[in-house]
Amino acid sequence: MSGRNSTAMIATLGFVTALSGFLIVTVFQATKPAIEENKRLAIQKTVLEVIKGATADKHFIINEKGELLEAVPGMKGINVYAGYDAQGKLVGVAAEGSAQGYSGSVDTIYAYTPACECITGIKVIKQTETPGLGDKVITDKHFVANFDKLEAKVNAAGDALANAIVAVKHGAKQNPWEIDAISGATISSKAIAKGLNNSAQDVLPKVVPLLPQIEGAQP
């Protein structure tokens, strides 16, 4: 192959590569708003499912300064979703948790009810665990019952949970902050517990002082 042909081929390949890259970026930018909106609607639906009694919600961001701000696209910080009843009264808040399971991350949205200082609902929004085993965290009624009233009290110093949320061997639960694991799906059970604990340890100490502000907001 002559030098001229090689140069032409390289130039053509370079052009095709650049064009492909341009098209990928263009398509991504064009579809990004729709993807973000679909994600927002999916989270909103989940929030209203996990916060019992909620008929309306409001999305907030807690920034690095600990300030509560109404969320807008592109804003960085901790996502907090407030749920209000038909009379506009705050009934709970929701946040996101995530931890590594057996074959991938297990992502959840969970509800915190201030009245009992406990987690009162959870929904797995993403998981890639072994079918029939790991997916029991979604289908096993006994396991889901762990989250009817899972203690998540903030300690006296206000900087962490009074007791860490942990998964224990099936049948060994003795404390209200423990999660009774599923036999045969211990790793997935522990991933749920770890994701909740990591999130709640960080989020709830920031949320609790802001509850009066959240309650006074209009959904």
TrEMBL record:
Domain of life from the UniProt record: Bacteria
Cofactor list: FMN
Pfam family, one: FMN_bind
HAMAP family the record matches: RsxG_RnfG
EC code(s) of this entry: 7.-.-.-
Record organism: Thiothrix caldifontis
One Gene Ontology term of the molecular function aspect: FMN binding
Keywords: Cell inner membrane, Cell membrane, Electron transport, Flavoprotein, FMN, Membrane, Phosphoprotein, Translocase, Transmembrane, Transmembrane helix, Transport
Subcellular compartments: Cell inner membrane
Subunit structure: The complex is composed of six subunits: RnfA, RnfB, RnfC, RnfD, RnfE and RnfG.
Function noted in UniProt: Part of a membrane-bound complex that couples electron transfer with translocation of ions across the membrane.
GO cellular component, one term: plasma membrane
Family affiliation: Belongs to the RnfG family.
Membrane topology: Single-pass membrane protein
Residues modified as FMN phosphoryl threonine: 186
Domain FMN-binding positions: 101-203
Gene Ontology terms: biological process: electron transport chain
Protein name as annotated: Ion-translocating oxidoreductase complex subunit G
InterPro entries: FMN-bd (IPR007329), Ion_transpt_RnfG/RsxG (IPR010209)
